[in-house]
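step 4 of 6: structure.
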Amino acid sequence: MSTLQLTGVSRWYGDVVAVNDVTMTVGPGVTGLLGPNGAGKSTLISMMGGFLPPSSGTVTLDGEPVWRNTEAYRSIGLVPETEAMYDMVTGWEFVLANARLHGLADPVGAARAAVEQVDMMDAKDRDISGYSKGMKQRIKMATSLVHDPKVLLLDEPFNGMDPRQRMHLMELLQSLATQGRTVLFSSHILEEVEQIAGTIEVVVAGRHAASGDFRRIRKLMTQRPHQYTIRSSDDRGLAAAIIADGSADSVDVSSGALAVQASDFGRFVQALPRLARDGDVRLLEVTPADESLESVFAYLVAR
Amino acid sequence: MNVTVMKLTARGLLGRRRALLLVILPLLLLGLAGLTRWASDASPEASSILANNFSMGTLLPLMCLLVATGVIGAEIDDGSIVYMLAKPLKRRVILFSKLAVGFAAVFVFAVLPTMAGVAIAGDEGGELSLAYGLSAILAAIVYTAIFVTLGIVTRNAVVFGLLYALLWETVLGGYVPGIRAVSVRQWALSVGERLLGSRQADEWAFASEVGMTTGLIMLTLTTVGAVYLGVRKLSTLTLNSVE
């Protein structure tokens, strides 16, 4: 059992702050690092993997700093986002070379176990340059599993995978976690993360925006001011009724349509048809204005 | 040194298409050597001028640059070096292994052709080939160390390397005499000059700007300095797609 601990970690490049004062503990089980593109997920994973020093703060694995500590790689398996590998060798040769680089006692046995685990035995003797994206991803997984690491760090592992490969990898990550390993992966897709991650860490614009299990994150994301754009036969009449009823926080009629912000999502949705019927107003269109993940993230940061 | 690092490095160096260049340049030299022999009647002096200007001045630095980018620069550029670095291996061991592969490649593809070029163009009893061979080995060690480290320090190693090889050693040295003394080629030639003896060296136009002691000291300092810097930079190499 291993624990990665980030304490007050910031990273900046010149004037640009990529990661801003992040403190988090990543323990056994699957942790999803969720955030929009450019939020600093890769920077965080680089720091956890010892390939980038924090500008301030510390990243430790079981109390030992990761930066400039090559011994840490006995416990860490890293699946980088870059697709480049040593293309001129076969998948098997590459995994075996990784086993040898780790100085394992039985490199051939370890390589076989890793290649079996990612289900690549059939294609193992083909050149990596001829692999599909999903196959490359699986060989990358095998190289990171070959030394039986306690901690596995994966940067956007589901990118470019078809649904079947995605499912297979999800099962693999879950089985690794049930063996007591610490598995952390990054993603910008909430559905992907909540399917397998026991813990979700949300990062937005370099800041640690939220942390918890998926129910908590879901709730945070749904219980927030919702915005609707409404077109009706009598916008002003409906606006007056909504305000009088108290089911919305604000109503704006200046843009030609009716813009409503409601903090209690359930109450507003129930009140709207009733108010329209009572006021004899015909509803022409009701659209949620900001359901994109980016706006959800933006809300979490502003909170 | 680590055998697996060396094997992977060698496959990376020879497995890419650019490996063809490693053969083309030496072939060009051998062709020129043949022409020189035919044009100057196998005179050691003409042979020496070819070896000094083309082999030592152009071929050797270019080949070392090519090999250095092949053993480490390309891997850093595409990020695949992460598989080698994310291992419980001393970075020093990785660098030494890569340097060894690089030097072996330069020996085969540049030092041996240099000696063969001299033998083809004109030599007496193999003395000139030996003198150039010895100088080429020394220069190859230093150039490989410099360019491999350059590949770790900057992503623009090829540009800097070319500027050095083509401008500093070849063009500037012709106009600014002071620069000529600050040159890997001249330091390496000083050892070959001593081997031939000054009378023989004069006769065959085998000249160095510096004495052998100075040459050896500079060669050693430069190599040690480059390797030391290389190990340090590789130990703190940052890999991050966001940068």
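step 5 of 6: annotate
 - Residues 1 and 215 of chain A are 25 Å apart (CA to CA).
 - The first strand of chain A starts at residue 4 and ends at 13.
step 6 of 6: archive
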